[in-house]
Amino acid sequence: MKLTDFVIYNGKKYRITDKLFGVYNRALRYGDGFFESVISFYDNVPFWGYHYTRIKEAFSDYEMETEDFLRSNYFLNELDRLRKSNKFFGRVYSRISFFREGSGKYLPGDDVKVSYLIEQKFLGQGGFKLNKKGLVVDVFSEYKKPVNKWSAYKKISAELIVIASMYASKNNFDDVLILNEKGNIIESTNSNVFCLSKSGVVYTPSLNSGCVKGVMRSVVLELLRKKGFKVVETDNFLMDHIREADELFLTNAVTGIKWVKAMGQKRFLKDLSLSLVRMLNEMYVK
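The structure corresponding to this sequence follows.
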């Protein structure tokens, strides 16, 4: 995996070693912003419509004054310009961070403007691949995620996810499932959660439960319905759903689908996960 040599900051290209921010940067001091994770295959950005919709919704919910750069084609061109500068020819992960800059403390000053930063990683060749070794996961219950309209976005301030990831690493889990303030399962540290019941119904936490409004979540919901599955988006995704499931899998826009092998003493299959990965590659990877 090759890291970016160049980044784009407010429309200008910089080397990764260049100084971009001062100590009063609001993203650094207050975590005042959000980010979007985007996958591309050469110049093909297959899910851009979902990403762009979520970016616009986040600007509205965070009450960020938008500049002229908030145009769909503008960002597509910026992603491709940076990819070519980095000489990334294949599968590329791009992170677009949006944050306020200017004066003020918790309350932004009158001079605050919205900035953006794009960075990339080269992930290799080919399309989406199902993980060969199934994940081992557990539940992280010490720190619960609040439920509100901002729960849908990936925040620059990611304290919960950092602490949960440290817990997973310390206890030799590949990932952990996050709970909301009501104690219901809503997502993992970096993915949405799905399970296939023995009766053939697919369950996933609803957006009302506080999970991230994942791009791959939306895509997988469409694929499942095309395949004829009954899908239930539930406000109360519980351990009972997992105990009674044949499959448990995680989704995000960068890795696609990851199947879970084990949670405690429970073991899971991967047939549906494999089928969905094939559909993703057939429909979206060019």
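Helices lie at 26-30, 48-61, 72-86, 159-170, 215-226, 239-243, 271-284.
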